[in-house]
Amino acid sequence: MGASRNLRRASALSARFLIVGAVSTLIEIAAFNLLMLTGVGPVQAKIIASLIALINAYIGNREWAFRSRARTGRGRQALWFLAVNAVCTAIGAGAVWVGARVLEGVFGTAGPVGLNVVNLVAIAGVTVIRFALYHYLVFPREKVTRDDHLPSGRLAG
User: What distance in Å separates the CA atoms of residue 10 and residue 14, rounded to the nearest whole number?
Assistant: First the structure.
């Protein structure tokens, strides 16, 4: 019974993470396209749009997706969250830069459709990295000690 309960918890966590991620992705895509319409380049637009979406992602993940995880302090979690997302934003921006260069080399131009496809591929790849890092670093499980399993909190003699 414990294994099926853990599987349900993991499934719920994954579903909540994906929902928060989907909303954040919509925010990021909208911001990315609005920025490009105003003349901002694709790499800069990717970085700015990612930063805008991060606000939603932090609140949604901390307060909903990973709400059952250890509350090891907002400062520590915020620092890890920012570090993880700085790395993930750099990876995503790098992927957009490479994708734009490839599209220009093949088609002569990157174009908005091509850049959006590249952006979506970058988002999908970075999502896997983010989930693993959120799971283990940003919102870790509480450590369970032997005392937690005994009703009195004392070791059995």
Answer: 6
